[in-house]
Amino acid sequence: MCFFDQHRFACGDWKWGHFRQHCNREYRTGETCGMKLIMQTVPVSQKCKLCDKIDTKQRRRSAEEDRINRWKREGGKFRASIDRSYDMIRSLDKEIYDLRSERMRKLQAVRRPITRPMPVLTGNV
Question: What is the pTM of this model?
Answer without folding.
Answer: 0.71
